[in-house]
Design a protein that fits this description.
Rossmann fold; 6-stranded antiparallel beta sheet; 3 domains
């Protein structure tokens, strides 16, 4: 067995091997618990129940679809999605989690589902009766006869299931990017990517035999899927899940659940910590005990230093330690996690000279200079992750302190479901192959390395090649620094 401090990971090449081992050796251990209102458990799934349900779903799916077919998973928050996800993988299919349409924005939601279905080449979908009727009411061109209702009312099809043993290179699921600046793009995550990323998160994330996780992040987002659902199965510890709407309606419920269920690991984007500070009353904070919260990860959007300061100060009386903040840098294009702050140290905040940044060089601001850019450290690259900073025009390797594109490599690097039709990206990939460097990724973050500091400066920065723009310029490109990551 691969052993971590007080934590044993069973043998196996894929998460399916790990899940089956847990079903046999720790069958009554709670795997997932859904908190319907953010307080009381609505449903509890043990590893025995999860394995049995996944086999039953897989048996039904194998009778309908061919191995390797791509299957949309269209579910509201809850354990039905978890069961469908593992059931699809048990069947040898490729899961495609998508945001479920809701009644308030039905047309937009259904259109998005249709676009993803077309891009993925989906053979069908798993969903609920309620969502199927909502989609049907919109008059969509999606072939709904290929949708399978997979909820609590489905029959047991375990006897029809044929066990599969996918290779690490086999495709497990498609993770679609948000599509906030362009059409959603599918990231092809293999079973090997899943195990590699799980190892990285385990080694860097301070997990042990007493760890308990909680996530309210959407299950169709890489943060919610990998950290909230996949990672707990890898380490074999209970995973509490709650709806994003529960948090948005009452952020206090998140922190109350952390206290009630002795949660050690729970994370969220910057806005969530800010929302807690701004909406939770002093008398409610006084009743909290957050002393057991060991890893409060923060990622998925730029991290503001004042958010860390305000949250740490506001919840210090509740036992929250500033050292428990773990700023992170990640993206679906790398399965999830790229870098993470290390344990036992407080988050690093540096003041940078904006004038030198405008010239493409990073340096700390001298005393008395104003204004300055304050940035938050996002830790060291995890596992086998390699980083190269490349000049956006010459494609040469940048010197220390120079700003360039962040190119990544490691066992967590997935592929793409459809060609990324950008000549500039093809040129960059050819350069990376010839140089033995990590590959560029299509989002084109820019950053720098300085004294073992890696800075991510902007997302969707416009790269110009022979006078032609290869991508959109967004608001991110006009902001000087998004995050800073020590230790390359």
């Amino acid at each position: 067995m691969v052993r971590h401090p007080s934590l044993s990971i069973p043998p196996g090449e894929t998460l399916l091997d790990v899940l089956r081992w847990r079903a046999e050796h720790q069958p009554e251990q709670p795997a997932y618990v859904f908190l319907r209102d953010g307080i009381s458990p609505d449903t509890v799934l043990t590893y025995r129940q999860l394995d049995a349900t996944a086999r039953s779903i897989a048996g039904d799916l194998q009778s309908r679809y061919a191995a390797g077919d791509r299957l949309l998973l269209v579910y509201p928050p809850g354990l039905e999605f978890v069961q469908a996800f593992w059931g699809a993988l048990y069947a040898g299919l490729v899961a495609v989690p998508v945001p479920p349409p809701d009644a308030f924005r039905a047309r937009v939601g259904v259109t998005r589902v249709q676009r993803i279905a077309e891009d993925a080449g989906a053979a069908g979908a798993l969903s609920t009766n309620q969502i199927l009727e909502l989609v049907r009411a919109q008059g969509t061109t999606i072939p709904l006869e290929q949708w399978v209702i997979c909820d609590a009312s489905r029959p047991d099809s375990t006897a029809q299931w044929t066990s599969i043993h996918p290779l690490p290179s086999s495709l497990a699921y498609l993770q679609y990017t948000s599509g906030s600046t362009s059409a959603p793009k599918g990231v092809m995550v293999s079973h090997g990517n899943m195990t590699a990323q799980s190892r990285c998160i385990t080694e860097a994330g301070c997990y042990d035999a007493d760890s308990v996780t909680l996530s309210w992040m959407p299950h169709f987002h890489d943060y919610g899927l990998v950290k909230g659902i996949v990672q707990p199965a890898w380490i074999g510890r209970p995973a509490y899940l709650m709806s994003p709407l529960t948090f948005l309606k009452r952020p206090l419920r998140w922190l109350e659940a952390i206290q009630r269920y002795h949660v050690t690991h729970s994370g969220a984007p910057n806005f969530a910590y800010r929302r807690c500070v701004e909406t939770i009353a002093a008398e409610d904070r006084a009743r909290l005990d957050l002393s057991g919260w060991q890893v409060a990860s923060c990622g998925a959007e730029p991290i503001a230093h004042d958010t860390i300061d305000r949250f740490a100060e506001a919840f210090a009386p509740a036992g929250f330690r500033r050292e428990a903040f773990f700023p992170a840098y990640g993206m679906a294009e790398y399965t999830l996690l790229i870098s993470l702050k290390r344990e036992s140290v407080a988050p690093t905040v540096l003041s940078l000279d904006p004038a030198t940044l405008e010239r493409g060089v990073v340096s700390e601001a001298k005393a008395g200079i104003a204004p300055v850019r304050q940035v938050v450290g996002c830790g060291a690259p995890v596992g086998d992750t390699r980083v190269v900073i490349a000049h956006p025009e010459t494609l040469s390797r940048c010197a220390v302190q120079q700003v360039g594109e962040i190119w990544l490599a490691g066992a967590s690097t997935p592929g793409w479901s459809s060609p990324i039709r950008r000549p500039c990206l093809a040129v960059r990939r050819n350069r990376s192959v010839k140089s033995g460097w990590p590959e560029p990724v299509p989002h084109r973050d820019i950053g720098t390395i300085r004294r073992k500091l890696r800075a991510r400066l902007a997302r969707h920065f416009a790269i110009r090649e022979k006078g032609r723009s290869c991508g959109p310029v967004t608001s991110g490109s006009s902001e000087t620094v998004k995050s800073l990551s020590p230790g390359v």
